[in-house]
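Bug #77: duplicate submission created two jobs. Keeping one. Sequence:
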Amino acid sequence: MSSYTINPTSETYVYMCKSKAAKKYHYNKACAGMNACSQQIIKMTLKDAKDKGKEPCSLEK
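Kept job's structure:
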């Protein structure tokens, strides 16, 4: 569990695995949930991730 507070805004950047199977976004690029990613890790706005139907990583809630 992370020790920082997440206060997302429309300008917040998140990270995702570029894999077609990726369903979650991560506030922290070093999140344990990213360990399974064997593709490139991409950075995008929180709005873009939500617009793509992605959900927040359960490890960072």
